[in-house]
Amino acid sequence: MAAPVHAAEAGQRARLGRVALPLVIAAFVAWFTADAARASFTLENLVMVAPAAALAFVTCAVLAVRAWRGPEPDAAEPAPLGPVLALLALLAGLVLLMEEVGFDVGVLLFLLATPWLLGERRPLVLLAFALPFTALAVLGLQAILPFTLTTLVL
After folding, report:
1. Same domain flag for 103 and 140
2. Total domain count for the chain?
3. Within the chain, where are the H helices?
4. Domain check: are 64 and 86 in the same one?
5. What's the rounded Cα separation, in Å, for the pair 153 and 129?
């Protein structure tokens, strides 16, 4: 017969479980980055992988520390599935329409539709959010990518 689990021990196990997920994700990112570097250690190959890996490592570290040091999460209702599926559909639309309308227009439409889906209805706020981030994404990628992006306006 198993010994009863004390509340402190159960809390410690739950905390370890919450810390384990970001560590597993960081391990996968490390493997993926090392594999990409082994395939070809060139700027063209690592231009997107290395910055994304760095961002993923920082995010995983922050999440792991917060999970370890933070309070126990409240037992909350799960998020409704509708908005999650709608965001996935918007992302799929961005990918599918990119060649048809251009990367710039596709990103702009995505960045307009996403906050609208999440409840923002003020047109000036939508434009003030979407326009600068679209320009930043398009011009930034054009500056670092070794190939030309298909764009309509920028």
Report:
1. yes
2. 2
3. 7-39, 43-46, 49-69, 81-101, 103-117, 123-144
4. no
5. 18
Quick one: tokens of 133? 């981030």
Query: Torsions phi, psi of 82, nearest 5?
Result: -55, -55
Query: pLDDT category, 2, cuts 50, 70, 90?
Result: low
* Residue 8: both structure tokens together: 């402190």
Distance of CA 51 to the CA centre of its chain: 13
Q: 31 with 60, same domain?
A: yes
The angle, 0 to 180 degrees and rounded to 10, between the axes of the packed helices 123-144 and 103-117 is 140
Q: Is residue 51 part of a domain?
A: yes
Tokens of 1: 């017969």
Over the stretch 85-140, which tens digit does the pLDDT of each residue have?
999 999 999 999 888 999 999 999 999 999 999 999 999 999 999 999 999 999 99
Contact of 141 with 133, CB cutoff 8 Å: no
46: which 2 tokens? 């690592």
